[in-house]
Amino acid sequence: MATIKVQGMTCQHCVQAVTQALSGIEGVENVTVSLPKGEASFEETKPVDMEEVKKAVKKAGYKVEI
Ligand SMILES: [Cu+2]
Q: Which of 13, 17, 19, 44 has its CA 20 to 30 A from that of 36?
């Protein structure tokens, strides 16, 4: 289980956007996003490149802080 800090989420829409962005990455499964904590957790079915994760979250409009 990997956990990342995501900056910029303010509502459920943001949670959805981040969840979808992360779910679209190969090897990422079971994404859980916590709005109050500003965190996202996911399982890796294979090694996931953190740069990929950062890029996907950035594309969705948020920022990852690891
Ligand atoms: Cu929002």
A: 44
Ligand 1 midpoint to CA 11 (Å): 4
Q: Tell me how far the alpha carbon of residue 8 lies from the centroid of ligand 1, in angstroms.
A: 8
What is the 12 CA–ligand 1 centroid distance (Å)? Answer: 6
Residue-range domain boundaries for the chain: 2-65
Instruction: Tell me, in angstroms, the distance from the centre of ligand 1 to residue 23's CA.
Output: 18
Helices (H), the chain: 12-23, 50-60
CATH class of 2-65: alpha beta
For 4-58, write each residue's pLDDT tens digit: 999 999 999 999 999 999 999 999 999 999 999 999 999 999 999 999 999 999 9
For residue 55, the tally of other CB atoms under 10 A from its CB is: 14
CA of 46 to the centre of ligand 1 (A): 30
Contact 4, 56 (CB under 8 A): no
